[in-house]
Specification:
This protein is an alpha+beta fold and about 525 residues long. The protein is about 40% helix and about 10% strand. The strands form 4 sheets. Strands 2, 6, 7, 8, 9 and 10 form a 6-stranded antiparallel β-sheet that branches. A two-stranded antiparallel sheet has the order 1-3. A two-stranded antiparallel ribbon has the order 4-5. The protein binds adenosine monophosphate and magnesium ion.
C-alpha cells in the first residue's frame, strides 16, 4: 500500500496560523478588492525597469466572464469576481488598496528585425497574490495608456480579450505551458480598430511576465548593471535551484532554452500556432504568452500561416521550432555579458535541438498510442503527416479518430478513411501503423484510453471563438462561458457538446485573424 499521512483529529485546531493562508480563510466571507493581499516584488526593483502609474477608468464597466480554475490559483472564485468592487478593480477603475500598478519596459525583435524599445503598451501589473502554486502576478491588459504605448491607444477590444481569455484557459487544459486568464470586464466605450469596437480589460495571471525582450532591452542599451538586476531577480524568484550552479546565468539560459523547446514541441503536437513569435512575446518562464492572431491547425498544412499580417510566413506552423531556437539565440546574445564567453552561450543554446526532438518524439508517440521506440518511427510519422497534408485532413479530428482504430478490423476504418481524399494513401499508412502496433502487442482498449487522454476532441477553433465573440458583442456573454466549460475538458467525449468538435462551417472557412487587437 502507498504510504499515507494520517491527519489527526487535532490537526486543524492545533496547527499554527499560517500568514500565507490568511486570505483563504476569508473565502465565503466576501473578500473585498481592497483587502486582496497584493505584494509587488517587481516594484522593489530599480525604477528604470518600469513606470509606476494608474490605469485609466472605463465608463460603466461590467463583468463579461471569469475562469474558476484560474481564480483558484489566486484564492478567488467566479462569484467574488462578479462583485462590483472586483469589476471596478479588474477594469482599472479602482486600484485595490495594496496594489502598486506598474508597466514594465522591454524591447524586442519583431519579425526578425530589431524593433528597439517596446514595453507594456497597454498592460499594467497590479502585483502578486498568494495561491496554492505560489505567488502569481495579476496583470490588466487594456487598462489605458502607458509611457510605452507608442502609437497605440492603451486599450484592448472585447474580441481580442475573449480570444486571449479562452485560448489561455484552453491551452492550460490541454497541458501546454501558458499564462492564464482570470477575468474579462467590458465597457461600451468605443475603440477604433478596422471598425469601432468596444473596450475590454482581460486580467492575466502568471508567476512572471518577464520576456526575452526584457533582457534584450538592457543589452542593446549597453546597461549591464540593469541586465544583472533583472537576471538576478528572475533567478532568485523563479529558478532558485540554479543559483548554486557554477555559472547561474548560463544555467538560466540553458533552462529557458529547454523550456522553450518543450513548449514549442507541445504547440506542434496540438497544432497550435502562436502567430507572433516576436522576442517580446517569449516568456522567460517558457509559457505561451500574448495570445493574438493564434490559430489551431485544421486542414493539415505545415506551411499554414495563422496570422494574416505575417505575409512572409515567418511564423508558420512548420517554422515555429526554428523560430523558437532563433529567439533563444536573441536571449543568449542579451545574456552574453553576464555569462562571459560565447562558447558558454552556445553550449546553453545547444540544449534546444535535443530537448525539442525528445519532447516532440514523446508527444507524437503518445498521440499514436505507441509505448516503445522503434527505428522506423520517424518514417511512420513523416508518412502520416504527408498523407494528411495531401488530403487536407483536419488535425484534431484525425488524431481523435485514430484512437478508435481496431487492430484486427481494417474494415472498421471508415470514419478515418473518409477523412482522406487519397484513400489508398491512408490504407497504405494504416497497414504500416498496424504492423507497428503489433510489434509492441498493443491492446485496443488500453491504447484507445491512452490516446484519448492526449488527443483532444475539443480545441479553440477560430469559428467557435467567433460565434462567442459575436454574441458577446450583442451583450450576451453566455456562449463565452459555455465554450470555456467545453474547453476545460478537451479530452472528454462530452457527447452533448459534440457540435463543438465539428469542422468550420462554410461561412468560417476563410476567417482571417490579424495583429489587430
Ligand atoms: P503585440 O504585437 O500585441 O505583442 O504588441 C507589440 C507591442 O505593441 C507591445 O509593446 C504592446 O504593448 C504594444 N501594443 C499593442 N497594442 C497596443 C495598444 N492598443 N495600445 C498600446 N500599445 C499596444
Ligand atoms: Mg506582445
Amino acid at each position: 500500500m502507498a504510504p499515507y499521512v494520517r491527519i489527526s483529529a487535532g490537526f486543524w485546531g492545533n496547527h499554527p496560523h499560517l500568514p500565507l493562508l490568511e486570505h483563504f480563510s476569508t473565502i465565503g466571507a466576501a473578500i473585498r478588492a481592497d483587502d486582496l493581499p497584493f505584494v509587488n516584488s517587481f516594484a522593489q526593483l530599480p525604477p528604470d525597469l518600469y513606470t509606476r502609474l494608474q490605469p485609466t477608468p472605463l465608463p460603466a464597466p461590467y463583468f463579461v466572464a471569469a475562469s474558476a480554475r484560474a481564480a483558484s490559483l489566486v484564492g478567488l472564485d467566479v462569484a467574488t469576481l462578479q462583485q462590483s468592487d472586483m469589476v471596478a478593480a479588474f477594469s482599472g477603475n479602482a486600484v485595490p488598496g495594496k496594489a502598486l500598478p506598474l508597466s514594465a519596459v522591454y524591447s524586442g525583435h519583431q519579425f526578425g528585425v530589431w524593433a528597439g524599445q517596446l514595453g507594456d503598451g497597454r498592460a499594467m501589473l497590479l502585483g502578486e497574490l498568494p495561491g496554492p502554486q505560489g505567488r502569481m502576478e495579476l496583470q490588466l491588459k487594456g487598462a489605458g495608456l502607458t509611457p510605452y504605448s507608442r502609437m497605440g491607444d492603451g486599450r484592448a477590444v472585447l474580441r481580442s480579450s475573449i480570444r486571449e481569455f479562452l485560448c489561455s484557459e484552453a491551452m492550460a487544459a490541454l497541458g501546454v505551458p501558458t499564462t492564464r486568464a482570470l477575468v474579462i470586464t467590458g465597457s461600451q466605450q468605443g475603440v477604433a480598430r478596422e471598425t469601432i469596437e468596444t473596450a475590454s480589460v482581460v486580467t492575466r495571471i502568471a508567476p512572471s511576465f518577464v520576456r526575452f525582450g526584457s533582457f534584450e532591452h538592457w543589452y542593446h542599451r549597453d546597461q549591464p548593471a540593469q541586465l544583472k538586476v533583472l537576471a538576478d531577480y528572475v533567478l532568485a524568484n523563479f529558478y532558485p535551484e540554479l543559483l548554486t550552479e557554477a555559472n547561474p546565468y548560463q544555467a538560466l539560459l540553458a533552462e529557458v532554452t529547454r523550456r522553450t523547446a518543450r513548449m514549442i514541441a507541445h504547440w506542434q503536437a496540438v497544432g497550435f500556432m502562436h502567430g507572433v513569435m516576436n522576442t517580446d512575446n517569449m516568456s522567460i518562464l517558457g509559457l505561451t504568452l500574448d495570445y493574438g492572431p493564434f490559430g489551431f491547425m485544421e486542414a493539415f498544412n505545415p506551411g499554414h500561416i495563422c496570422n494574416h499580417t505575417d505575409q512572409q510566413g515567418r511564423y508558420s506552423y512548420a517554422n515555429q521550432p526554428q523560430v523558437g531556437h532563433w529567439n533563444c539565440y536573441a536571449l543568449g546574445q542579451a545574456l552574453l555579458p553576464l555569462i562571459g564567453e560565447v562558447d558558454e552561450v552556445e553550449a546553453a543554446l545547444d540544449v534546444y535541438r535535443p530537448a525539442f526532438s525528445a519532447e516532440l518524439l514523446r508527444l507524437l508517440q503518445a498521440k499514436l498510442g505507441l509505448t516503445t521506440t522503434e527505428p522506423g518511427d520517424q518514417d511512420l510519422f513523416d508518412a502520416m503527416f504527408a498523407a494528411m497534408q495531401r488530403s487536407h485532413v483536419d488535425f484534431t479530428q484525425f488524431f481523435r479518430a485514430l484512437g478508435e482504430l481496431k487492430l484486427d478490423e481494417p474494415a472498421g476504418d471508415t470514419l478515418l478513411r473518409d477523412m482522406f481524399i487519397d484513400r489508398d494513401a491512408f490504407d497504405a499508412w494504416a497497414a504500416r501503423y498496424r504492423t507497428r502496433l503489433r510489434q509492441e502487442n498493443s491492446v485496443d482498449a488500453a491504447r484507445r484510453a491512452a490516446m484519448h487522454a492526449v488527443n483532444p476532441k475539443y480545441v479553440l477553433r477560430n469559428y467557435l471563438a467567433q460565434v462567442a465573440i459575436e454574441q458577446a458583442q450583442q451583450g450576451d456573454f453566455s456562449e463565452v462561458a459555455r465554450l470555456l466549460a467545453v474547453l476545460e475538458h478537451p479530452f472528454d467525449e462530452q457527447p452533448e457538446h459534440a457540435a463543438y468538435a465539428a469542422l468550420p462551417p462554410d461561412w468560417a472557412r476563410h476567417l482571417e485573424v490579424s495583429c489587430s487587437s
